[in-house]
C-alpha cells in the first residue's frame, strides 16, 4: 500500500489518529461511567462519599447533585432528556469511538460535529462549575480535557481525510483526461 493510500502523507497516519481518538474516548467513557456510578450511589445513599470528593470546594458530588447535573441544567424533570449528564457522556464517547473506526468523510464530519458540540458543552459546564457552583470537579475537568484533545485529534484527522479525498479526485480527473 502506498504512503498516500494509507493516509501517511505527513504527520500521523489515519490509523494513529483513529487509535488515539478511541483511546481518548475510552478515557472519557471511563470518567462518564464513574460519574454515572457515583450519581446512582448518591441517589441511593445521600451519605455516600465518593473518591472524587477531595475537599469542600473540590467535590464531584456538588456538581453531580446540583440542578445542572441532570438534563444539562435546562431540561425539566418530565423531559426525556432529564437524565444524569454522565449518561449522555457515555452515549457520546461510545458514538465517537465507533465513528473513529471509519475514515469515510461522512463519519469524520459526524465526529467533528459531535466533538465541537462537546467542547461547547464543556465551556458551558466549566462556567457553571467555576462561577455558579464555585466548585472544582476533577471528573468534570477530566472530561473537558478529553474533549479538547479529541477536538485537536479530529481536526487533524479531518484535514488529512480532506487532503486524501482531494488527491483521489485529482487522480481520477487526470485519468479521465
Automatic annotation (TrEMBL):
Its main location: endoplasmic reticulum. The keyword Membrane applies. It is a multi-pass membrane protein. Keywords: Disulfide bond, Endoplasmic reticulum, Membrane, Oxidoreductase, Quinone, Redox-active center, Transmembrane, Transmembrane helix. Its EC number is 1.17.4.4. Gene3D superfamilies: VKOR domain (1.20.1440.130). This is vitamin-K-epoxide reductase (warfarin-sensitive). It comes from Sitophilus oryzae. The lineage of its organism: Eukaryota, Metazoa, Ecdysozoa, Arthropoda, Hexapoda. The gene is LOC115879210.
